[in-house]
Amino acid sequence: MKIIVDGAKCQGNARCWAQDNEMFNLDDEGYLPSQTIVVPDTPEKQLAARRAVRACPERALALEE
Amino acid sequence: MATLASTRPAHVPEEHLGDFNLMDDPSMLPRPNGEPHAAIAKLLDGPPVFYSLNNTRNGEGAWFVIRAEDQRRVLQDGETFSSNRNIFASALGETWPTIPLELDPPEHGKWRSLLNPPLSPRRVMNLEPFVRQRAVELIDEIKARGNSCEVMSEFAFPFAVSIFLQFLGIPNDRLMEFVGWANDLLHSTPEARTKAARTVIAYLDDLQELRRREPTDDFMSFVTQAEVDGRKLTQHEVKQMSVLLFIAGLDTVAAALGFDFLYLARNLDDQALLRAEPQRLTLAAEELMRAFPTVTPVRRATRDVELHGRLIKAGDLVACPSMTANRDPAEFPEPEKIDLAREDNRHVAFAYGPHRCLGSHLARREVVIGLEEFLARVPEFRIKEGVDPIVNGGFVFGVENLVLTWN
Predict the structure, then answer these.
(1) Number of structural domains found in chain A
(2) Domains located in chain B, CATH noted
């Protein structure tokens, strides 16, 4: 499972960070730069990843299974 | 100006007019036990975009964009939908934008980059001990006075104002003065508003002078020492920023807390649940922000845009009430239900797009910590019998006269 981050859409709502502050490592301004995050293969991380994607008000995250 | 109120612009056909407006719709006026959120959510049953007359203090009309998806489009596109409206300055008869809210991209970005770090989710954690201490002090004072309080004036307002003062670097002994100015600025006559605005500016100017000479570790020192475009900020720019922090951080946090207390005083099962399991508060506070958001961002179109077959012309105002987006069934399953364990809560209480509330992470912690300490220290509270809380809609929804009582 991967998460594609569209950094141009990120506005620093930090709802992904609230789900998992390791997987979603915000920069000093509190934003998530464009990147592809490889989600560790554990049920907890995968649940956090799915929730983070759904919780983004800007729809800056996309899930790729 | 009043003539604007009664005039439909030529490019708006009769069938695109709606009869709801924020200024004088009966459901938006202060009323005992009013339910302005439920009232404005009814707009979701009507057209997704409509024009209504008389939506600003000076009588301008505005387009209303009701659904979450459409609001996202408007608020994410700061080039097409400008937020340069000079609202605070207009109370002084002047024309200048607050920074960064009333600046548009790309100019907006460099100011936002300056201000984001001190208000990032990680950095606001440093303020938590102070936030908690203030909550506890205010609650202890309330309990020393008896088993009842007007929670807005005795807790929510002084709590929000004192955290702002601490952040900016103003001693807490000025608290009640600032509460008074904030009240005049937000809820008073035009004359009192102008007077309060001048008083606040004069005070912030003095503080700025002081911190330029003798910097400490507060926000005012930070902005007076900071650089943008390789130069120090001007006195005017610092004023444009500090004034925004003052107006943005007061009413909104207090109002959010007020709606939370109102909900918990009326829903004793949920109150008991959060008291027993305070770890639920982080999610619960998000759900209450979804259910009872307080603001309606307004933008001005910079070019002609069509939305749902309506022509929004360059120069038109566009209003995006967070209350309708937050109850949009396309965005939230069972939007009318308040579910304190709701996950994936992508509500828009802090707006979408580049102007997403700069203080949102601090605001979130203020609300959670305020509720946490109140629930930990005050037993089951209800609304005092025979006293009706007054709830208002409009540009910033709010509650007054919320008298809580407990045994």
Answers:
(1) 1
(2) 2-406 (1.10.630.10)
